[in-house]
Amino acid sequence: MTHEKPRIDDALDVLRREHYRITEPRKAMLNVLVQESKPLSAEQVHQMVGAEKADLVTIYRSLEAFEKAGIVQRFTLESGKALYELVEENHHHHHIICRKCHRAEKLDFCEAEKLEALAKNLGYEDVHHVLELYGVCEDCRTKE
After folding, report:
1. Which phi and psi angles does 85 have, rounded to 5°?
2. pLDDT tier at 19, thresholds 50, 70, 90
């Protein structure tokens, strides 16, 4: 728990700096995101925060604000469903996602950065990429 409070405080500082409101539902959402080691859907965040603290529309709007502020990373499953996780400072990464159980694991390197450099050499600016890998995890394969 000692590393959670600084992460929440850092995220709140970013929201303030970017002129976003600090509300109790947003604090609750940050607590949920800090405590989870896996990416979560908006519905999962809503369930963990509790309907009495925030409705689903508030969750979606706050996640969008978090993403715009740069404190949350969104990635999209093959099905189109979005998952969210807190951005780790100075730690860009991607995921391998199980097609059956949707477990997502971090991949701690990024070869796509070389492609971004090539695009910049071709004269493109503000270059970004989205890369997620999909497969079937060992647990799901042994259940078959």
Report:
1. -150, 155
2. very high
Q: How far apart are CA 79 and CA 61, in angstroms?
A: 21
Give the residue from 17, 38, 42, 19 showing the smallest Cα distance to 29.
42
> Rounded CA gap, 52 and 120, in Å?
47
Is residue 130 predicted with pLDDT exceeding 80?
no
- Examine the pLDDT at 110 and tell me if it is beyond 80: no
Q: Which residues of 20-58 are buried (b: 16+ CB within 10 A; e: fewer)?
A: beeeebbbbbbebbbeeeebbbbebbbebbeeeebeeeb
- Give the model's pLDDT for residue 27: 96
pLDDT at residue 102 in the model: 81
Residue whose C-alpha is closest to residue 132's, from 90, 99, 88, 86: 99
CB 101 within 8 A of CB 137: yes
Residues in contact with 38: Cβ distance below 8 Å, sequence separation at least 6, in sequence order: 85, 103, 104
